[in-house]
Amino acid sequence: MTIKISVAAARGVEFIDSQVQLSGWVRTRRDSKAGFSFVELNDGTSLGNIQIIVPQSLPDYETIIKSITPGSSILAEGVLKASPAKGQNTEVEATSIKLIGGSDAAVYPLQKKGHSLEFLRSIAHLRVRTNTFGAVARIRNTVSYSIHRFFQDNGFIYVHTPIITASDCEGAGQMFRVTTIDANNPPRDADGKIDYSKDFFGKSSYLTVSGQLNVETYCIGLGKVYTFGPTFRAENSNTSRHAAEFWMIEPEIAFCELPENMDWAERFLKRLISDVLTERREDIEFFNKTDSTLIDTLNHVVASNFVRLTYTDAVSILEKCGRKFDYQVSWGIDLQSEHERYLTEEHFKSPVILYDYPRTIKPFYMRLNSDGRTVRAMDVLVPKVGEIIGGSEREYRLDVLEERMREQKLEIEAYNWYADLRRYGTAPHSGFGLGLERALMFITGIANIRDVLPFPRTPGNCDY
Ligand code: 4AD
Ligand code: MG
Fold first, then answer.
1. Are residues 351 and 438 in the same domain?
2. pLDDT by residue (tens digit) across 214-247?
3. Cβ(65)–Cβ(35) under 8 Å?
4. Is the dihedral of CA 393, 429, 176, 417 positive or negative?
5. Ligand 1 pocket: which of 361, 438, 443 to mutate (most atoms within 8 A of CB)
6. Do 289 and 402 fall into the same domain?
7. 233 in a structural domain
8. Whole-angstrom Cα distance, residue 318 to residue 316?
9. Index of the ligand 1 atom closest to the CA of residue 212
10. Ligand 1 within 6 A of 381 CB?
11. Are 384 and 345 in contact (CB under 8 A)?
12. How far apart (Å, rounded) are the C-alpha atoms in residues 437 and 454?
């Protein structure tokens, strides 16, 4: 009997001496003078390949072997054997090989030599066949599953918040407009401006920057909830850490104040990292070859207690540290990546949770402290990436919320539904947002967000 198995399964010892069938994509082929060819096959189920030994005695050896080039897809049958070679448990002694889809070696873009990440971005449809992007994809999958397991294990309800929205959660005006208006012939109002009341929804609408405001409504009713979906920001900042489309995980917890919110964020991040360390060991060890401090750093984060520090104390550390920053530090500024990285990488050498930020630099929904000048915001900072999580305790007092909305020149009417949560059964509640790609950058050590997204969208780039 022939058993159909994956490359990952074939690399273990479970099926030794069985007649097996494998299919996948050829990475390399080497012909030896001793009457064999060696084919390295990968099917995406693991980083490592399985070696298939093709004897020249196979009846159609000459035709088969010429067509088995890098990138081609094949179906191989044979006996799985314990391998005498170093670095592999098993190998397949082929009894038959079928070419499924050929790949012209002269033009196949993925040659055996290593390619730069920049080059691979230009062939995003093929790059998943490389070690790096296969590993990123598997880790992204494991992290996503781990996110759901963490929240489900802790009694959270998964809520699907809308992608199209009429409100700007972060108040930063970085929204992509959603419209069906004909750009060449838009309806106009009496002042000659485009009349969005004639648009599809009868008003302006946008792609969401965050599911938070919507998920808060479910929190005030279900208690512990989370949303996990794509979010969009028309930030024109061409950095290695910002994408126009990214995935965010946003839990929201009722009857929860800021310190407990920090506990949740810390436990959550540690769980994701420790799940990847155990479940994707081979892929993580691969990334550890590029950055030999990676596994140590991840283990350290899982074992450490995150430093907790107010924004005010952080500013005073930065002012006194004697370092020349590009952007000068003073109380009230929005901390830049260079400041965040100094704190987490050099000063504390550990993840840091900064909290109690100036009210002037944070959105309207954050709870005002009794000092009147700071809000109960928190950012989790990690080495190399900087801000990985942003969150806060929410303002649950109606009068203060409305004062903050006026201060930030929001149209109070439009947020009436949000204010209702404070009118009927208001409760302290808190939440945060983890950027999935920032988490993946931290876990893999990959420095550019474009390389942890399957199809990155950044200013000027929307291919595929
Ligand atoms: O700090 P942010 O803007 O917070 C919020 O959106 C809140 N509504 C979250 C909440 O309290 N429910 O974004 C949260 C996280 C950041 O810490 C960062 O990890 C990620 O989202 N992020 C981005 N990731 C990639 N590209 C961008 N342009 C990002 N902007 C934010
Ligand atoms: Mg933030």
1. yes
2. 999 999 999 999 999 999 999 888 899 999 999 9
3. no
4. negative
5. 438
6. yes
7. yes
8. 5
9. 12
10. no
11. yes
12. 11
Nearest to 150 by CA among 410, 392, 422, 439: 439
Q: Are residues 89 and 154 in the same domain?
A: no
CA gap 380, 132 in Å, rounded: 27
Which residue range forms the structural domain that includes residue 160? 128-174+209-451
Region 73-98: what's the mean pLDDT? 95
Does 43 share its domain with 144?
no
Same domain, 237 and 92: no
CB 156 within 8 A of CB 224: yes
Q: Which ligand lies nearest the alpha carbon of 364? A: 1
Examine residue 199 and state whether it is found in any structural domain, yes or no: no
Reduced to 3 states, what is the DSSP secondary structure of residue 369? coil
This prediction has a pTM of 0.97
Q: Is 388 in the pocket of ligand 1 (CB under 6 A)?
A: yes
Q: How many domains is the chain built from?
A: 2
Q: How is residue 218 written in tokens?
A: 């479910």
Cα 364 to its chain centre, rounded Å, is: 27
Q: Return the minimum-mean-pLDDT range out of 168-177, 181-190, 327-336, 391-400.
A: 168-177
Q: 346: burial class by Cβ within 10 Å (0-12, 13-18, 19+)?
A: exposed
Domain match, 141 and 226 both: yes
Q: What is the pLDDT of residue 64?
A: 85
| Both tokens assigned to 226 | 């989370």
Residue to substitute in 168, 170, 213, 248 for testing ligand 1 pocket (most ligand atoms within 8 angstroms of CB): 248
Statement to judge: residues 135 and 97 lie in one domain: no
